[in-house]
């Protein structure tokens, strides 16, 4: 079961604009009966490893924008522990409600994106990136090809990284659903550049969130994490093989419906399991 959950993480991470943890956390709670905090921590570790695998592939195809990655990733890494600290102050029930509310928002965003921009659903994190399809560098570049450190651009990327980091630490989400549209909106990069860059940022921020989890968790189930992470890498690999065949608006909408269903089931399970 743990391997299957990991494969879901890898497939969702590779084939959609959402992070795999939005599926992983409720599945770990429902199928493996993990406490909310443990499910968030294990999901972060598995997402970090799966995203690292995808990042290595994107590195080979030169699809990573390094300056935005450094700015977004650094601020995200710095604020993920703060998000975890805030999460430690909240009750498990409130944390679960907040997470599933966020998951439903992610699902609605995925559905809207598939309806408004169906052509973008064929560009996925598991797919092969081709430099000739890139439309331009992030933010602005000088005539010599150097990144221009304009305060507005850098500040916006840093603010986005702060939000991603807080959400990662608080709810255990990798932030992919936010990183991709943020990069496109702020820097006018192509969808391929944003998707390729997002995995590196997810790797860094999810790792920071996971390390914050291990610092406060008395006993981390490393064996379980290993199984889920292995499944995540397998899921990313499978996604890489089949992405050009199955990536479509319909698939994105199926993921959206599934995510809403799992979120509602998790909330209902929590409601019925709570003592009167």
Please provide a written account of the structure.
The chain has one domain (2-273). The protein has 10 helices and no strands. The chain is 75% helix and 0% strand. The longest helix has 26 residues, at 191-216. It starts with a helix and ends with a helix. Mean pLDDT is 76; it is low at 122-138. It is globular. Helix 6 crosses helix 8. With 276 residues, it is an all-alpha fold.
Order of helices and strands: HHHHHHHHHH
Number of domains: 1
The multimeric state of the shown protein is single chain
Please work out how many helical segments DSSP would assign: 10
Structural class: mainly alpha
Task: Sum this structure up briefly.
With 276 residues, the chain is mostly helical. The chain has ten helices and no strands. Helix 1 (2-15) packs antiparallel against helix 2, helix 1 packs across helix 9 (222-246) and helix 6 (151-171) packs antiparallel against helix 7.
Task: Give keywords.
single chain, mainly alpha, globular
């Amino acid at each position: 079961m743990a391997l299957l959950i990991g494969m879901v993480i890898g497939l969702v991470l590779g084939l959609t604009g959402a992070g795999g943890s939005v599926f992983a956390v409720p599945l770990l709670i429902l199928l493996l009966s993990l406490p909310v905090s443990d499910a968030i921590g294990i999901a972060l570790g598995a997402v970090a490893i799966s995203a690292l695998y995808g990042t290595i592939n994107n590195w080979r195809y030169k699809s990573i924008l390094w300056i935005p990655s450094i700015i977004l990733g650094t601020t995200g890494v710095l604020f993920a522990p703060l998000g975890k600290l805030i999460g430690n102050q909240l009750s498990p029930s409130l944390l679960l409600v907040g997470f599933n509310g966020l998951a439903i928002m992610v699902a609605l965003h995925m559905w809207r994106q598939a309806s408004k921009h169906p052509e973008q659903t064929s560009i996925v994190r598991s797919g092969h990136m081709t430099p000739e399809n890139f439309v331009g560098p992030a933010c602005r570049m000088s005539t010599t090809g150097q990144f221009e450190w304009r305060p507005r651009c850098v500040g916006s990327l840093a603010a986005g990284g702060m939000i991603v980091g807080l959400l990662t630490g608080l709810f255990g989400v990798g932030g992919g659903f936010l990183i991709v549209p943020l990069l496109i909106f702020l820097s006018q990069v192509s969808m391929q550049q944003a998707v390729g860059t997002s995995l590196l940022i997810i790797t860094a921020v999810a790792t920071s969130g996971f390390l914050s989890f291990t610092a406060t968790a008395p006993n981390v189930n490393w064996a379980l994490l290993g199984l889920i992470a292995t499944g995540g890498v397998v899921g990313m690999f499978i996604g890489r093989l089949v992405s050009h065949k199955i990536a479509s608006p319909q698939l994105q909408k199926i993921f959206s419906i599934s995510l809403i269903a799992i979120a509602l089931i998790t909330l209902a399970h929590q409601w019925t399991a709570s003592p009167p």
